[in-house]
């Protein structure tokens, strides 16, 4: 009589990391050690970028951007994060899983990493923002190391309000290379946009701002600018109609009797 082979229970396959690691509900942006925004410029400049980030070759429903939101990036260290001044993503819905406003951006829970990041230089952050500082091996990596080597973000922009200097880097061959301005702007054909400096008034504050343009160099309008343009065009249309009506009256035709 032959004995039956021993029963070996089959273990279930391991779950993928995005089902077992913390989600944005576990990793929000609230942090009592980082209260509030540092100054008005760090609020207004990202807001201008947010309002004009309208990639012309992407479905608006699949475009997302955020300012001062925790960006979690490391599967092995799920509590590590960076907090970009502003970042933009394409191929991602405005709501988390199409349902909820984001509390943070957790890369292992999202379909795409940021496509472009903007950091606004401060005297205390310049070394890290420009890759001149590397942290110890047992510490979280610098922003430059995260954006370049871990998330591999295609475009990294650094702007100083103190010197009005715009520095840009494009990921080429796995490393950031400096970008040259083209007609004063940084073209990003994958978005159908370019990024450049604009001397103008935003929220009634005239200064040099970082702002999105089309590839051809036309400003991406703010909602208030679109409304003003529509109002101006309507006024011009009324003026032309009144001029035409007056011309008809001079010719002996009553414009009110015309069909």
TrEMBL record:
Coiled-coil ranges (or none): 227-254
Keyword annotations from UniProtKB, A to Z: Coiled coil
Biased composition (Pro residues): 1-19
Domain Putative restriction endonuclease: 25-198
Family matches, as InterPro entries: Uma2
Region (Disordered): 1-36
Pfam families for the chain: Uma2
Protein's UniProt name: Putative restriction endonuclease domain-containing protein
Organism: Nostoc commune NIES-4072
């Amino acid at each position: 009589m032959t004995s039956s082979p021993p029963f070996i229970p089959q273990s279930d396959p391991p779950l993928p990391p995005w089902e077992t690691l913390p989600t944005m509900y576990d990793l929000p942006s609230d942090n009592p050690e980082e209260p509030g925004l540092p100054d008005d410029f760090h609020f207004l400049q990202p807001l201008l970028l947010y309002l004009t980030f309208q990639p012309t070759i992407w479905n608006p429903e699949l475009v997302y951007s955020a300012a001062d939101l925790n960006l979690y990036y490391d599967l092995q260290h799920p509590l590590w994060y960076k907090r970009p001044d502003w970042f933009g993503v394409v191929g991602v819905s405005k709501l988390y899983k199409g349902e909820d406003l984001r509390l943070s951006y957790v890369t292992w829970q999202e379909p795409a990493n940021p496509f472009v990041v903007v950091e606004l230089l401060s005297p205390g952050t310049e070394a890290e923002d420009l890759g001149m500082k590397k942290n110890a091996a047992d510490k979280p990596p610098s922003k430059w190391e995260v954006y370049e080597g871990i998330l591999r973000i295609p475009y990294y922009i650094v702007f100083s309000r103190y010197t009005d200097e715009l520095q840009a880097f494009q990921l080429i061959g796995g490393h950031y290379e400096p970008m040259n301005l083209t007609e004063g702007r940084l073209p990003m054909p994958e978005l159908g946009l370019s990024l450049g400096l604009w001397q103008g008034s935003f929220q009634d504050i005239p200064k040099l701002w970082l702002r999105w343009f089309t590839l051809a160099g036309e400003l991406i309008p703010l909602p208030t600018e679109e409304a003003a343009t529509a109002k101006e065009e309507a006024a011009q249309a009324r003026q032309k109609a009144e001029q035409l009506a007056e011309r008809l009256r001079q010719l002996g035709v009553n414009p009110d009797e015309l069909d």
